[in-house]
Structure formats: C-alpha cells, structure tokens
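Narrative of activities, Objective 1.

The group set out to show that a structural description can be obtained from nothing but a protein's sequence at a throughput compatible with the screening campaign. Below is one input-output pair from the validation batch, recorded exactly as produced.
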Amino acid sequence: MIRAILDTCVLWPSRQRDFLLSLAIESTFEPLWSSSILDELAYETRQKLQRSGVTITQAELDSAKLLAEMRRTFPEAECRYFDAAPPRRRLPDAGDDHVVEAAIAGSATHIVTNNLKDFPPDAMPDSLQIVTPSDFVTDIGLRDSNACWRALEEMASRSGERGPKQSPAEILEGLARVYKWTALAEFLVTQLPDRIRRPIL
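Output recorded for this entry:
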C-alpha cells in the first residue's frame, strides 16, 4: 500500500485536498501528515479565509473544524516523529526537516509536494519517492480509474453547499484546468463509466 505524506502546500488548496482525501477514502493510498503540517495548514486556511472577508473568529472556527474532520476521518494519519532519523543531509530549508522526519516515522513511500527542489533525492531515504500532486494522482488513476471516478462522484454529491452543484465530469474539468492535471483527465475520460456524462476537456 502506498503511504504518502501530504505536504502543506498540497493540502492547502481546498479542491485538491478534497480529491486527494477522497482518493484515500477509496483505499488507493494511506494519507500521512504531522502535527506541524496540520498547524501550517490551519494557519494558511485562516489567512485565506480572512482575505476572503471572513471574520477572525469564524476563520479560526472553520480551520479548527477542518483539522478535526481530517483527524476524525483518518485517525492513523498523524505521524509522531520525535525519535525519527533526520534527513541524510541538510535540506535547502531546515524548516522542511519535519516533513522528512514524519515520512520516516510513518514508513511513508512518498512525499507529495509542489516543492521538489526542497527535497533533493540525495537527502532522502532510498525507499522514499518525492512526487508532485499531478504525478501522484495520475499514477493512481492509471492503477485504479474506477476509484478516481468514485471519488469524483462523492465530491459531486457534496457540491452545491457553497457554490453551484457540479457533476463528476465538471469537477474533473475543473481539476484539470486549475491544477494542470491534463494527463489524469485525458486518461480518465477513456475509462468513463456509463453512468457519468462525458466531460468536455
């Protein structure tokens, strides 16, 4: 089973986070994070909400609710890394050491991040792959397209609360456009279940 540390930069965009965690619910991989990653996520979420006009109090409540839901849904995801081995050598940013330490403590197979340069291969354990979200979800899609469509259907069932109701195909279109997940989208269209309307890519 793939065990993947999800870096803060991957969890912060809400639609990307939703899809990744929906894939995890479909048992395509086991998500991992640390308390430091969640603290960073809470901070970035509060800042984003306040920039959109949400009050400080409401932003704090919403960010706390997000973390509580993640912990409830994935109770085994939070890695304890106090005794974990450090990276092989100093990272470009020492502030990222905790990500690698959490990966080692959690026996992760992957770190999913947008910041590949911050995790040079020669500083990583041989068993640990550093991948972008795009490559990660594309690999999952190639292995289990049905799980991807089920995740998209689940996201579609929850849509409409804070915006327009969307179909699974419309959500896929949005993911491909916003996050440049063209390879995933083009492949999933070739594996389209009969019950889902074909997206326009």
